[in-house]
Amino acid sequence: MGALLQRRELRKVTSSWHGPLTYCAAAMAVLALVCGLGLVVDGRTLMGQSVWLKPFKFAVSFGMYAITLAWMIDQAGRWRRTLWWLGTVAVAGFVTPEIAAITFQAARGVPSHFNFSTGLDTTVFMIMGGAAYLGWLMTFAMGIFLVVQRRVDRAMAWAVPLGLVISLAGMSVGYLMTSPTPDQAAGLARGLSLTTIGAHSVGAPDGGAGMALTGWETDSGDLRVAHFVGLHALQVIPLVAIGLRLLARRFSVLSGAATRTALVVVAAFGYAGLTGLVLWQARRGQALLAPDALTLQAALGLGGLVAACAVLVLAVSARRVSARAASAGRVSGAGAATPSSVA
Hints:
Keywords: Membrane, Transmembrane, Transmembrane helix. It is built from eleven helices and four strands, in the order H-H-E-E-H-H-H-H-H-E-E-H-H-H-H. It is mainly alpha-helical. A hairpin with a 2-residue loop joins strand 1 (45-46) and strand 2 (49-50). The model is unreliable at 8-14 (pLDDT under 50).
């Protein structure tokens, strides 16, 4: 009897959205509001930006991460208990310590990333690094169990793993930022004790002129662009699949599952290409809004290839739809002619 009640309780818990991830998303929404208030009422700045801008951005990003995984786990039909525990560990071991450390340092008015100024700052950054590694591993593990799910919608069956793979690649860009810059490496080689090791900028020190809201560098390359773009493939690619399914109700050319699946693959290819493009641009020291001719050519080539693939998929689908309509018309015409011929 006790075992039966336990199983019923487990089904009750796992039949709804993942609780810890859902509550985490709600907490991130509240934190984003608090940080937004801090942006208005707290005049302190760090590297030319409000001390509350970073926790605001991370709260929004973590909220999107948490609610997306909660939705994905809710869609799973198998391995739900394993996914529940993986999601819970991601909240407790990744999101919570990461956002807590960032907010704590923001309240102190000191950098959270790459900060080795004091023993406390070093410890905080080490905690963040460990949490980031754990987050990558938990996301990878959840991705494996989400990929093996059986899904009725074939387009979504492709969108989830493709979005996860690109998102993991985007998360991995963060590790490039922890490497010493050439100047820092030279200082370390001379035995200097540095207060900053690592940077998100390429070609100039961190803290230069930045874009509104995002804070991305406008005078140098910025690895955060590729980090952001790749990370949110977790939301973008499944949203493409959902959008195509909704559009299929109005446009017959999208009615075929094979067509929608092919378009999801094309979209994922283009999104992965975009992530790689902005990473390549940043690594060459170029700001997002100041691409050189080579970067523009690569962007145009990528855009043209994606557009051509999408047009090809739609053309093939349109031909199939026309062929089916013509076939149905012939069958209907033959059926209508049969009674008169018999008479």
